[in-house]
Amino acid sequence: MTDDLTFPNIDRAYLDHPDHQRLKNHGSTHPPRVLLLYGSLRERSYSRFLAEEAARLLQEFGCETRMFNPSGLPLPDDAESSHPKVQELRELSQWSEAHVWVSPERHGNMTGIMKTQIDWLPLISEGIRPTQGRTLAVMQVCGGSQSFNAVNSLRLLGRWMRMITIPNQSSVPKAFEQFDEDGRMLASPLYDRVVDVMEELVKFTLLLRDRSDYLVDRYSERKKQGRPVVSAAGEANQDAVS
Length: 242
Known about the structure:
By secondary structure, the protein is an alpha/beta fold. About 35% of the residues lie in helices and about 10% in strands. It has two domains: about 30-210, Flavodoxin domain (Rossmann fold, 3-Layer(aba) Sandwich), CATH 3.40.50; about 215-240, no CATH class. The two termini are about 30 Å apart.
């Protein structure tokens, strides 16, 4: 263990020591805003059924939900970002505080429809990151035995989009056996897991939504932008003003 605790390569004006005041709940009282995305256009789409079931649960837990219909969304690079469906998707993401992503597994991964939606969400646009700091829950439906390939890939994308993916997830095997004719999910341990996931998402969203900007504020970006750390009391780091 070295005794040298100096940091010659750090500019302390931009170094933020965890601030307990900033981590306190700031008291937002509006319903958590959740965007749900699903990855199939079939008339009897089990990923849509699962997303709709999730939306019902989220509303029960006091959330406001919106669901994006991917029908008509162009492939990335095959249209301008001004396309109405692209603008709709981006505006919904900007509105949201949390996402739910539900994909079928096709050829061992998420569907192209699912990936297209995420690919149209920019990491940054006009100085705004429309997904950064938002909470995310991932789920998948399977045509056969239970698999986790799609949710694993969705988790990877969530990290890439700088989202906070909750620990729990759901994979529904033989999805054609798990929903009734009206598209409602049948009672089973698989349904109970979906309840678990949505309950956990709401808790994480309430815990993080007033703190997300602070949690994802980075030393490297502050330094690049010439933006010294300012405390919760509005005081700049002494090194920045000396």
